[in-house]
Amino acid sequence: MATAILKLQDASIFQGDNLIISNVNLEVNRGEFVYLIGKTGSGKSSFMKTLYGDLPLKKGVGKIVEFDLDTLKEKEIPYLRRKLGVVFQDFQLLSDRKVYDNLAFVLKATGWKEKAKIDERINECLEKVGMASKSYKFPHELSGGEQQRIAIARALLNHPELIIADEPTGNLDPQTSVEVMEVLQQLNKNGNTILMATHDYALLLKYPSKTLKCDESRIFEVVQRKS
Known about the structure:
Keywords: ATP-binding, Nucleotide-binding. Part of the ABC transporter FtsEX involved in cellular division. Important for assembly or stability of the septal ring. By secondary structure, the chain is an alpha/beta fold. The chain has a single domain (4-222), classed as Rossmann fold (3-Layer(aba) Sandwich), CATH 3.40.50. The chain has 7 helices and 10 strands. It has helices at residues 44-51, 77-82, 99-109, 115-128, 144-156, 174-189, 201-206, and strands at residues 4-15, 18-29, 33-37, 59-64, 67-68, 84-87, 162-166, 194-198, 210-215, 218-222. Strand 7 (162-166), helix 6 and strand 8 form a beta-alpha-beta unit. Helix 4 packs across helix 5 and helix 5 runs parallel beside helix 6 (174-189). It is globular. 37% of the residues are buried.
């Protein structure tokens, strides 16, 4: 029996007073890898922001990792985000501190106290993305692909139930995109649920999976043609 980790019913996505996407009905089940595709400006980012509480869900019903988006209170947002791992296009690493300190900052901010446990968790997450040897580098000493891997490691720290990746390969060249994609595919094989927004159709061909499309103010599932 599939378990829905994200479910939206008759939901409308707003940015301020502007209606961006209307009448969204969808489910993402535990263990799935789901793409969200669509042209730039089609509403993918607004949709993603609604999922992690950056934009309120003003209309319809939404549930994500046991949180109700339609009644989500300001004070609940940090707790929601602890159950999500969010990966951005532009990495968002703190440039003035080393990789280890970037990750330790997140753990300490979410209540981790013991240095030994912090060290262990950081090493585990860096290992998962193939970056175990880079913990004492500054972000500027790393390539774009390496920085994005660190950002994925950061997203894994608190054992998220769902990873939301918003154009994670958007700033990377094709070869590096494939390397980052391999990391995400491996995480999914190991049980992580991933929702990834992208406009890189080459990745969809190389790694086919369930696909949602954002177009003309709607989101709908794209039925894959069997080759």
